[in-house]
Design brief:
heterodimer; A: 407 residues; alpha+beta; four-stranded antiparallel sheet; two-stranded antiparallel ribbon; 16 helices; B: alpha/beta; 10 strands; 35% helix
Chain lengths: 407, 243
């Protein structure tokens, strides 16, 4: 029965996540829903980083870079690519059947600047149709580019370990941040690249129409993405893939000597986790509506790693739960309070509390705070019973005790 | 029939020549000892056979297939297995998971449960079945040696190279390793044992190779080899009786 508790708890959690937006009705609904969307966004990042760093042992600091690749890919796609029924003759464009795929020239940071498409529109007859491809193509492009860069980085770091890998990926992330910051005319740099909402025309769910600024549609998109990523990762973790990436974390040379194609699995884990980070970044970018190179700062990456560490470095579910709890905790810790005549400004001190929790976790609970609880319910409790208690009790017939989830 | 053919292997690390024109053949399920002083090139030879490092020149064939340019995982798939001088169990994986890794790597469509029975047989033979759900890091050094040997059984190679299988192992566990070697060899697999334990190596092996300073200075019957003046010279400081 004890082993079933995680499954029951998981099912109830999923049910709760779906039901919450429909049953929660307090005045701070939008604020709480925003927190949930952000928490799920970080949960995808932390759990996918857990697969990369915790399971495969690839201690990468480039995860937020892949997230940014997803965000900026869909951002640039939705800002620069249009479909027109007539040629502009001044934009970069190519024919696509009866239509023209039009690429705008750099939009720059000056809001009043006319694009080549704006100029073309002034000369076009009224019947020329101009539209934008669905933003979901942009998100898909972001995911694919995230995977492509994951492949390239995975291939480049094949021979790098530990600190070298960490430094390499920090370098990659910083190069990307510098490039986005430098190309102001294209990315708008710190001015920020604006993105359209996920459902610009609103969305109708169960007969209720939600506007573009309502929180429910982006929440459901992020929730589906989160559950989809979790399902894939849990399946991978229990499959041969999970076994092999753990073996290469433990000892790459020994794994290769036992016929494991370490190159393939190392690159694969980079590609898969990069695509997940890119997907989360793309959806979050459309939800927030604006992105800047600051999403790439090292602090952001550190927060994701800290979430994974506190939740459980070697636990996909633990990292996700850790990310959700920490997102809410950090937000609720914003409330300042007064002791006598001294006001404690928690907007600053909350990060100190967070850092302290991280240090204590690393010092005393190397497997994180959530992971041991999950283990207690599933594997470890049984293991302790079979090997220690039963042998001590003189029970030598251990064969009857099956403890694994064999996939 | 198993055939390992090592032809004129040279290996240089910068200006240091570690292996010089090493050639030998293993034909059939031989039980071979490989000895040599520290720095003789034993582990380098193992690493070349394994594919971890490439020879400066020379070739290696296993069952007619050239393996020296292949990456280690393909060498393992071709039928060569090895253990390491310092035990390299997957410490934060359970004993059973350690055994599943080579089994699944060799069988792309198989699942863990397909190898459950085989893994349990291996663990029972190695007398560590009661530790199957323990993390490998919880095992003693000797038990980890057994686990490495168990992984080789799951890999099921044609030829095994065991690097110092007896180093730091309790006599009781040594007996199990002895049984392991005899049984695996009896099942038709060739085994090359690298060891500094002369008594053991002379007891076990039917053929003895001696490497010294990168040269293969002797290859033959252990009783003949140990009387070879060149070998005695290589083990300067160790008298004939000790050899």
């Amino acid at each position: 029965m004890k082993k079933r508790i995680p499954h029951i708890a998981g099912a109830l959690t999923v049910l709760f996540l779906f039901a919450f937006p429909f049953i929660y009705s307090r005045a701070d609904y939008d604020y709480i829903m925003h927190l949930w969307i952000t928490a799920l966004f970080y949960a995808i990042l932390a759990s996918s980083w857990s697969l990369l760093g915790g399971y495969a042992g690839q201690f990468s600091f480039g995860h937020m870079a892949f997230m940014a690749i997803g965000a900026y890919s869909t951002g640039l796609f939705s800002n620069y690519i249009y479909i027109a029924s007539a040629p502009t003759n001044i934009c970069s464009e190519f024919k696509l059947g009866d239509m023209y795929l039009v690429f705008l020239d750099p939009i720059g940071v000056t809001s009043g600047k006319l694009t080549c498409l704006d100029i073309a529109k002034q000369n076009w007859p009224a019947d020329v149709v101009v539209s934008q491809p669905s933003i979901f193509w942009g998100i898909l492009l972001g995911i694919l580019l995230g995977g492509l860069f994951g492949f390239l980085i995975g291939a480049l770091v094949l021979r790098l370990r530990a600190a070298y890998l960490a430094l390499f990926t920090i370098g990659f992330s910083e190069i990307l941040r510098a490039a986005i910051s430098a190309e102001i005319s294209i990315s708008r740099g710190q001015a920020g690249l604006k993105l359209k909402p996920l459902f610009g025309d609103g969305l109708t769910i169960f007969g209720t129409t939600y506007s573009a600024i309502d929180k429910l549609p982006p929440y459901l998109v992020m929730l589906f993405l989160f559950l989809f990523c979790m399902a894939i990762m849990v399946w991978l973790e229990r499959s041969r893939f999970g076994l092999f990436i753990r073996s290469l974390r433990e000892d790459e040379e020994a794994a290769a000597a036992l016929a494991v194609n370490t190159v393939r699995y190392k690159i694969l884990v980079f590609v898969i986790t990069s695509m997940m980070a890119a997907a989360a970044g793309a959806v979050q970018a459309h939800y927030i509506g604006i992105i800047t190179p600051n999403i790439l700062i090292l602090l952001q990456m550190s927060i994701v790693i800290a979430m994974a560490v506190i939740g459980g470095l070697e636990s996909i579910v633990g990292a996700a739960v850790g990310a959700i709890i920490i997102t809410f905790t950090l937000e609720f810790l914003r409330s300042s309070f007064t002791i006598g005549s001294v006001t404690i400004d928690m907007t600053i001190w909350r990060l100190v509390v967070f850092g302290l929790l991280l240090m204590l976790t690393l010092r005393f609970w190397r497997n994180g705070l959530i992971h041991p609880i999950l283990l207690w319910f599933s594997r470890a409790g049984t293991k302790q019973e079979t090997v220690a208690t039963r042998v001590a009790a003189g029970d030598t017939d251990l064969a009857e005790v099956e403890t694994e989830e064999l996939v | 029939m198993i055939q390992l053919e090592i032809n004129n292997i040279y290996k240089n690390f910068g200006g240091l020549q570690v292996l010089k024109d090493v050639s030998l053949k293993v034909e059939g399920p031989e039980l071979i000892g490989l000895i040599g002083p520290n720095g003789a090139g034993k582990t380098t030879l193992t690493n070349i056979l394994d594919g971890v490092i490439k020879p400066t020149s020379g070739t290696v064939y296993l069952n007619g297939k050239r393996i020296d340019p292949l990456p280690p995982y393909k060498v393992a798939q071709a039928g060569f297995g090895r253990t390491f001088q310092v035990t390299r169990a997957f410490r934060r994986m359970t004993v059973l998971e350690n055994l599943y890794v080579p089994a699944l790597a060799m069988n792309p469509t198989a699942r863990r449960r397909d190898f459950r029975k085989r893994a349990m047989e291996v663990l029972e033979f190695l007398t560590i079945e009661h530790l199957r759900n323990e993390y490998a890091q919880a095992l003693s050094g000797g038990q980890q040696k057994l686990l490495e040997l168990g992984r080789l059984l799951m890999l099921d190679p044609n030829i095994m190279m065991l690097d110092e299988p007896f180093a730091g192992v309790h006599p009781k566990l040594m007996e199990i390793i002895f049984q392991y070697i005899y049984r695996v060899n009896g099942d038709g697999k060739a085994i090359i044992i690298i060891s500094h334990d002369m008594d053991t190596i002379f007891t076990l092996s039917k053929r003895l190779l001696v490497l010294d300073n990168g040269d293969l200075i002797a290859d033959g019957d252990p009783e003949v080899v140990k009387k070879d003046p060149v070998v005695i010279e290589a083990y300067l400081g160790q008298d004939e009786d000790e050899l």
